[in-house]
Amino acid sequence: RAKENGRNGYRFFEAAMDEAQNDRRRLELELREAVHANAFEVHYQPQIDVTTGRATGYEALVRWRHPVRGLVSPAAFIPLAEETGLIVNLGAFVLEHACREAGTWPSELRVAVNISPVQLRRSGLVERVRDVLEASGLAPERLEIEVTESVLMDDDDAIATLHSLQGLGVRVALDDFGTGYSSLGYLRRFPFDRIKIDRAFVSGRADAHATIILRTIVDLGRRLGIPVTAEGVETPAELELVRRIGCSEAQGYLVGRPSPHPQPVRPDLLARVPA
Ligand code: C2E
Ligand code: MG
Ligand code: MG
Ligand code: MG
């Protein structure tokens, strides 16, 4: 009897596995069609200088306009897009959209674009970026590429590509800092133009430990001469904290949510921050 149950249990497990595989296959098929049909939108989230409260730029964040599920968040499809290679075309679309859009903004505003390790490993990224900049007329200094440290893991080619991007005049930011493995080693291996501290150290009731880590990262950035952006600033108290400890810039729901058309930052933002 125990054996029978065991077997049923196994069948059940197999059925669940099949279902998961089917889900994945369906998602992949839908994603493939979506890339083909260009069913994506790019939203823009503001970043501010914490001393002036003024916008310094916007981060481009992709969304999938799904016929049934509505607007799907990138967390739900970027990993699959990376596994299947679809990220290459999707990423090219985001890059073009972002540069074209930013070309219409006041010239002091940058645009930040997330680049996946898969895109970075493909040859031709540097040429593509150069072509897109040329076509859009955007000054290279106004484009900031965001990469996570996983990109650099034992990959000299990736580092060479980032150097070439900097050679074009494009800025390179280290995204989600503090969540990966040996972050400090990466700061030695590549001269990043910016560090973005992951919101895990910023949002919510960040505890004493998170605050100490936050301070240490900002201090590290200052010593290295690299400006630090705090991600996930959701409350006036969080904005006050990141300003007080010396972050240069802030991004988060308090400053502004991602939106299809970049929204101006409210001029009284800093006035609401406790002194
Ligand atoms: P990320 O690059 O770290 O982008 C910041 C994420 O945090 C965005 O999520 C943004 O909406 C969210 N966020 C911003 N402020 C706050 C806040 O105050 N509180 C909270 N809870 N969240 C906040 P989103 O748009 O869902 O994107 C998730 C991730 O997907 C991005 O993280 C990035 O790694 C990836 N991603 C998005 N667009 C692209 C893209 O075009 N290409 C690639 N390769 N990855 C992308
Ligand atoms: Mg990012
Ligand atoms: Mg991030
Ligand atoms: Mg991220």
Automatic annotation (TrEMBL):
Residues 10-37 form a coiled coil. Residues 24-272 form the EAL domain. This is PAS domain S-box-containing protein/diguanylate cyclase (GGDEF) domain-containing protein. The chain holds residues 847 to 1121 of 1121 of the full protein.
